[in-house]
What does this fold into?
Amino acid sequence: MADLVLDAGALADLLTQCFQTDDWTKPRVAPSRFISSESSRQINRIVWGHGPYVVAASTMAFVELVRKCEQIVAGRFEPYQLATFLQDPPDWFVVEPVDEHLIPLFGQVPMIQSLEWPDAIHVATALSRQEGCLVTADRVLRQVMGLLEGR
Amino acid sequence: MRTRLLSRDDVEFLAQHAQALEQEEALPMCTVVEPLLVADSVLKDRARLDWRTFRSGWQKVIDSRRLYVAPLDIDCLNRALFERSDTYVVTGLWSRVQEQALPPDHTVRRLILRPSEQTWWDDELYAEMESWYGEEQIDG
It folds into this structure.
């Protein structure tokens, strides 16, 4: 097991499933467009377990989610629901800041030319967790994570 | 004390000349986007300096405690991401962060610098940032 760091797509899918649940702080997460079967299983273990691991997302993932709201969110939840989540995230979820401490970790990301800096932040955020695994369906991000594992 | 907003070029300069901060008469401040963009260009060999030079120079800047690097954190999102009514009810997303024609770095700058009752800088700082970057568009 590890902490799971979500990119914007996976975050949108998780939030959607949260807000479709009676108690949005305790979703049963199913596989979806951006969350694989294995990732959904691991997320549920974190949500319903009492272990040391958390689900996390960078503040940048929230920014991307809002910038591409029509494509990523596609009306699946409302701004007030997002505000509710951010005002008081569940105890299994951490919103990671983008701050000066991320700069050194940014330098550890295998910087292939096609990797955009907002995506590199997700990788650096995963590196910032002691044991962090990035949940993403993005081809470039998966390639970068593969390069990291190969080191 | 007057605040001076630093650009990406300023940050790149400081990473090579951290001692220049000692000459500042205003309080220098930048958003976290500026060092991130410099780091990105350094790592992709698009800058004049290499990673080791940037990394050590930037650390000197941070260690001097003379520069405020404004973060993108959860407080910032709660403060700036939404439009709210007078009774603090969320009425929607702030339209200025939904402009997809703008590059993401500018969206982040807007979120960080959006003035509110909770920020200690004034509207002029935000206006200055918009005058620098507001016309930038995503290529293509």
The two ends of chain A are 20 Å apart (CA to CA). Chain A touches chain B through 34 residues (CB under 8 Å).
